[in-house]
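Narrative of activities, Objective 1.

The group set out to show that a structural description can be obtained from nothing but a protein's sequence at a throughput compatible with the screening campaign. Below is one input-output pair from the validation batch, recorded exactly as produced.
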Amino acid sequence: MNKFLSRKSLIFALLFIVLSVIGLRVNFSKLVGAENQFFTLFQFWGPIAGGFLGSLIGVGTVLVAQLLDFFVNGKQLTILNFVRVLPMLFGAYYFSKAKSSFSDNKFMLTVPLLAMLAFWLTPAGAGAWYFALFWLVPLSVITINYAVESISSLKLALSMVGDLLSGIPILGKVLKSYPQLFLLSLGATFVTHAVGGAIWAWSIPMTAAAWTALIPVVIYERLVFALGISISYVVFANVLNVVDIVFDIQKYVSIDKRYVL
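Output recorded for this entry:
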């Protein structure tokens, strides 16, 4: 790897870090159960770093962006605050493995299962055991996307689902136009939810009833995040494609031409 390649990779990583830090400063929705804690726009484009920059650089970029935001805002250096950077790292890694073979996804197959186990080991988690079933979504997405790549008729089936949901603004259009991208985004956001939920269950006192009450909130919230991730990916892919035409950057950034409009 020559210096030119290293410099180019570093430039795109730094640009993504800057955008991520900006996204971390824009609140999107309140985090239930904690004072002054919010989901931010970073939820929409954090995972896609893995898609464009690969697993290693993508995860590293997300880590640096979160740590930079951590220190800039003067957050207390506690184990809990540091552990809270982990969910998005797993989301970026999950997204980076989109084109990997089924066997290469063994690690990401185990993460949601371990999160479920950790959740069930808490008293509230044992009482609301069904809440953790959300975290089967990333496993299902890996299986479905693998099957779609192998069975062409499944692509048609996903498109038909998009037709059935066409009455729902944006959701139906995204599902019909980019079904696999939406599923991947859904899997990535539920991976972050699984890791974050397991950490939350062990660090923030909540009752089984409180977890149960969150179920409709989670459904709405994660669908919105999946849509945001999908749209962000398409926007980034088209912007980077224009840059690629001028500067030939595809050696350094992975651009999936299926999403270039």
